[in-house]
Every structure is written in structure tokens, then in C-alpha cells.
Amino acid sequence: MECHGTVSLVVLVLVLLLRWPALSSASVPVSRTITVDSKGGGDFRSIQSAVNLVPDGNREWIRIHVRAGGYREKVTIPREKGHILLEGDSPSNTVIFFDDYVHGSTDDLMRRGANAMGTYETATFRVYANDFVARDIAFTNTHSGINKSNATQALAALVDGDRIAFHRCAFNGFQDTLCDNTGRHYFRECFIKGGVDFIFGYARSIYDGCTLVSNIPLWSGRRAGWVTAHARGRAGDPGGFVFKGGELRGTGRQYLGRAWNKYATVVYYHMNMSSVVVPKGWAPWYAGNDTNDVLFAEVGCTGPGSDMAGRVPWEKHLSEAEVKKFVDMSFIDDGWLSKQP
């Protein structure tokens, strides 16, 4: 009996030790919850109305819970309204959607005429504030949803603040689906669908266990699309898209990325790649022949699309230390993720 009791006590201690990280990483509390319900059962029917209620200069986390439904509206989180948690019921049930797209002549765009719309303005969802979290919600641009023959830039989301995280969210579009523009961002178990440059920008981001889906129609006649288009302002600037785990699949053909400038940085780490991937893997685009500073790399990927035999000769082969620099959470996180709800 004494031996049995001792063993039980040891087992209990081990269980508690194994659970301790989860017990010690309690979520940061929210100060209040605002409910959005398209059917009228909440505080507001529109998401933007709930955002507008958050005071400028807000320093306490406020949850905006968006109940299941389709919300046809454009939503903007302005710079002065930080510490917002935008939460849906699930990305299949809570969807923000709109259908804006780039249009207008060059002169109209320069003058910002009434009949013109630039790339960033097309986004269904825009976040400019620092310290923002979204969970279990979908952001969709329905332009080119069916007819992709005259596709143009039509953003589902523009992410342009620092210390931003998306958990189990969906981003749906075709060309320029997700503008991961500036700042440090974390995408966990997200679903991102597009055909042309569907993740682009200057940001420093980790995509952890995300699913990337190409939706280029087999009948479109388009040779291939590009999953990413990344850039950095200068050689010393921090930045890069890092994909850890997850999968890349879909229809049509895709390059893993093209260089928006000669400092583009994209790393795929232990991702499962289907045969949608073009054998060359990467395109130089604006880097032209000057690819020495472009850092495109794949490490430990699997699946038929991961065969590197036909890759471009300027793809980088990273050392273990170089790989760790990108895939470790310190690439984006200096403690801010633990301060989010």
C-alpha cells in the first residue's frame, strides 16, 4: 500500500509538472465585451459600429464578439484604437465580406478621384492599430470569386500595425488576398486562399501551421501564380515571411514566391507541398539579375512539391543557426504574445 501510494503521488506530481506551462500561461483578461449580431440580438448589427465604440488611446483589452453570420461591410481598425480582440464563432460561420477592387485610370488614382480606388483601399478588413488579435473569423473579398478572367488587386485584409496575431482565421480572395504589410505578426492555424501574390508585403511574420490554397482555375490559361511577394526596404531591415508546418495545396500552378525587391525574404520550414508547386520554385521579379541578397529558402519540407531538384540556382541553403534565427519565435516575439488575451 505504501509503495502504491508513493507511485500515485509521483504520477500526480509528473502530471502537474507537465501541465504547469499551461497553468502558468493564463490569458490576459479583457475589460469588457461588445457583441455584434447581424440579426439584432447584440449591442450592434455592424462590426464597424462596435469598433467605433472603443475609445481612442484605449489601453485595456476589449473583446468584440461577432456572432455567426455574413457581414457585408468594410471594417477598419484605426491606429488610435489598439488592444482589440475581434472574435467570431468560427471562420466558416462568421464572415466579413466585400467586393472592392482596383479600378480607375492612372490620372484618377493620382487625384484619388471618385471613380478610382487604389490597392490598399480595396481591403475588406484593415488594421492599422498596434496590439490587435483576431480569432475564429473570416475575411473575404468576393471580387473574382467566380470569374477570374479579368482579375485585379482585391484585398481581403491589410495588416499594417505591430504586435498583431490571427488565430484560426480565414483569408479568401484571388489577387493580393492578404497584404501583410508592416510590423510583427503571428498567424496560427489560419487558412489563406488566393492565386496571385496572395500573401504580400514588408512585414516580419510567422505562419504557424497554416493552410495555403491556390485557387487558379485549371482552365484559366494562366501559366502560374505566386504564393508570396515579399520585400524589405534595405538590407539591414528586419522582415520576412516564415511558414512553419502546415500545407500548400490547391489548383493550378504556383511559384513559392517572387521577389518584390532584391531584399525579399521567405522561408518554408517543414511544410507539406502538393504538386501545385512549379519545379523552379521561385521567380526573381523586381530583383532581376541581382538576386544575391534575395533570401528564399526551404528546409525539411515534404510532399511532391518539395522536390528541390529543379529549383533556381540562387535559392539559399541555410545553416542550422540561420534556420533557427527564422523559425524561433524570437524572430517576431520579444514577449508581446504573452500579453495578449
TrEMBL record:
Q: Which GO terms describe its biological process?
A: cell wall modification; pectin catabolic process
Entry-linked InterPro entries: Pectin_lyas_fold, Pectin_lyase_fold/virulence, Pectinesterase_cat
* Pathway the protein acts in: Glycan metabolism; pectin degradation; 2-dehydro-3-deoxy-D-gluconate from pectin: step 1/5
Q: Which residues form the signal peptide?
A: 1-26
Record EC number: 3.1.1.11
Q: Which Gene3D superfamilies match?
A: Single-stranded right-handed beta-helix, Pectin lyase-like (2.160.20.10)
Domain Pectinesterase catalytic, by residue range, is: 34-333
Sample GO molecular function, one term: pectinesterase activity
User: What is the enzyme's class at the highest EC level?
Assistant: hydrolase
Q: Keywords in UniProt for this one?
A: Aspartyl esterase, Glycoprotein, Hydrolase, Signal
Instruction: List the catalytic activities from the record.
Output: [(1->4)-alpha-D-galacturonosyl methyl ester](n) + n H2O = [(1->4)-alpha-D-galacturonosyl](n) + n methanol + n H(+)
Q: Does the keyword Chloroplast apply?
A: no
Q: Which Pfam families match?
A: Pectinesterase (PF01095)
* The UniProt record lists the keyword Phosphoprotein: no
Function according to Swiss-Prot or TrEMBL: Acts in the modification of cell walls via demethylesterification of cell wall pectin.
Do you know which PANTHER family this protein is assigned to? ACYL-COA THIOESTER HYDROLASE YBHC-RELATED (PTHR31321), PECTINESTERASE CATALYTIC DOMAIN-CONTAINING PROTEIN (PTHR31321:SF99)
**What family does the Swiss-Prot or TrEMBL record give for this protein?**
Belongs to the pectinesterase family.
- Its name, as the record gives it, is pectinesterase
